[in-house]
Amino acid sequence: MNLTLRVWRQAGPSAAGAFVEYRAHDVSPDMSFLEMLDVVNEELTAKGEAPIAFDHDCREGICGMCGMMINGLAHGPVQATTTCQLHMRSFTDGETLTIEPWRAAAFPVLRDLCVDRGAFDRIIQSGGYVSVATGNAVDGNAMPISKPDADAAMDAAACIGCGACVAACPNGSASLFTAAKVSHLGHLPQGQPERYRRALRMVAQMDLEHFGGCTLFGECQAACPKEISIDEIARMNRDFLYASASELEESAKTGGAG
Ligand code: SF4
Ligand code: FES
Q1: pTM assigned to the model
Q2: Mean pLDDT, to the nearest integer, of 118-126?
């Protein structure tokens, strides 16, 4: 296959960016999208040009690093697939592909296709943990968890923090990501003591990071490579509302202190 690539090149966060056209020759349909970019980069390097910067790590769909827009779609045209797991057989010979970084105020471009997703880390730091003394690993059955709860926690835990939900959302909202992280622990007994505090803190941090509000467009769910459901957002909102009401009740009892 021979393809034309229109790639966003930007030397740094404050540099002006622009699309630059490249030809990708003799692309095997069995290559992954990232392998195709590797071959293009080898050619650029051999010519003394700067290779296209893009994030990647596991190349097996579990680390969430390889986010980019391909023809306007987060992670490209195949549902439930990360860019590293996307194969070139999903495109046709002679096609022109437009490749861009995530576009969101909360994800500033660092270089070419790489963006700063530190805002996600700060959301996790604000409440995505359980405060327990860990010690030795306990017996697997020490704390029985029902199958539906374990399945629900596992579904939410599948979020790899890639940011496609933010990139696909017309509002640039991080609600699907945050809701997945709130729900993951909220479904488990170990997550209960901090459940409502977690929802308050993570939603507050999400707002501080300049993500947009959620208006339930559903684009996030459609773009998510791990098929996280927007039901998680409803669950997060319920926990947040309950936590906000309880906090009001608490401050009324204490005369506003604490
Ligand atoms: S919810 Fe889906 S799209 Fe959003 S960060 Fe997690 S895995 Fe990526
Ligand atoms: S490189 Fe890890 S998910 Fe794609």
Answers
A1: 0.93
A2: 98
Q: Which ligand is nearest to the CA of 55?
A: 2
- Ligand 2 pocket check for 66: Cβ under 6 Å: yes
Q: Which ligand is nearest to the CA of 179?
A: 1
DSSP 8-state class, residue 8: E
Give pLDDT tens digits for 187-223: 999 899 999 999 999 999 999 998 999 999 999 999 9
- How many A from CA of 233 to the centre of ligand 1? 12
Question: Would you state the structure tokens that stand for residue 34, as one six-digit string?
Answer: 């990232």
The two tokens of residue 172 are 């640039």
Name the residue at shortest CA distance from atom 6 of ligand 1. 159
Q: Report the b/e string of 141-163 with b at 16+ CB within 10 A.
A: eeeeeeeeeeebbebbbebbbbb
Rounded to 10 deg, the angle between the 175-186 and 231-253 helix axes is 70
